[in-house]
Automatic annotation (TrEMBL):
The lineage of its organism: Bacteria, Bacillati, Actinomycetota, Actinomycetes, Streptosporangiales. SUPFAM superfamilies: Homeodomain-like (SSF46689), Tetracyclin repressor-like, C-terminal domain (SSF48498). One of its GO terms (molecular function) is transcription cis-regulatory region binding. InterPro entries: Homeodomain-like_sf, HTH-type_TetR-like_transc_reg, HTH_TetR, Tet_transcr_reg_TetR-rel_C_sf. Residues 36-55 bind DNA. This is TetR family transcriptional regulator. The keyword DNA-binding applies. Keywords: DNA-binding, Transcription, Transcription regulation.
Length: 191
């Protein structure tokens, strides 16, 4: 018979994954600042002390959530980090990324909310987002946009469009995310 509190024992990896999934949903809905450590624990049927057994702090949990999102993106979108052969191949890779985001609204919301909160240098994810932007731009320049006459400018333009599209789509789900992407991509990859 399970304990009256509803708490249950799980293998370490399974419990960690459960915590990360619940934290992702809570942060996407309320932002990081709006969720207490107790709320994270409660969402998983754990005590605060039990949660701290898996993550040393609320900030560590946040970084783990962000790293998990990055891992999921990399494993499902990019087959290789080798440079693509040209605009058509680059468009295919980026369209896979766009389609993936279209199917995971809560993760897009999580990233968008946290990215906005983390503009503040005091936010625990500020350095994470600065590093991610720098590394993302470099990856785009060298792996997906090396064919472009100005890969540095193209990387910033591509990221700016995607960030803006995602933000507007979160505000208005009637926006046809994929159609907007295809319209932009038709021009962007026609260099």
């Amino acid at each position: 018979m399970p304990p009256a509190t509803g708490r249950r024992r799980l293998p370490l990896a399974e419990r960690r994954e459960e915590i990360l999934k619940a934290a992702t949903e809570l942060i996407a809905a309320s932002g990081f600042k709006g969720v207490t450590l107790e709320a994270f624990a409660e969402a998983c049927g754990m005590t605060k002390a039990g949660l701290l057994h898996h993550f040393r702090s609320r900030d560590d949990l946040l970084i783990a959530v962000l790293e998990r999102r990055d891992e999921l993106d990399l494993t499902t979108v990019v087959d290789t980090l080798e440079p693509v052969s040209g605009p058509a191949a680059s468009r295919i890779v980026m369209t896979r990324f766009v389609r993936r985001n279209l199917g995971q609204r809560s993760l897009v919301q999580l990233y968008t909310v946290l990215a906005a909160e983390a503009v503040d240098p005091a936010h625990p994810a500020h350095d994470y987002f600065r590093t991610r932007l720098r590394e993302g731009r470099a990856m785009l320049e060298h792996s997906l946009l090396s064919w472009h006459p100005r890969p540095d400018l193209a990387a910033v333009e591509l990221l700016a469009f995607l960030d803006g599209l995602q933000l507007n789509w979160l505000r208005d789900p009637d926006i046809d995310y994929l159609a907007q992407w295809q319209s932009f991509a038709g021009r962007f990859f026609a260099v």
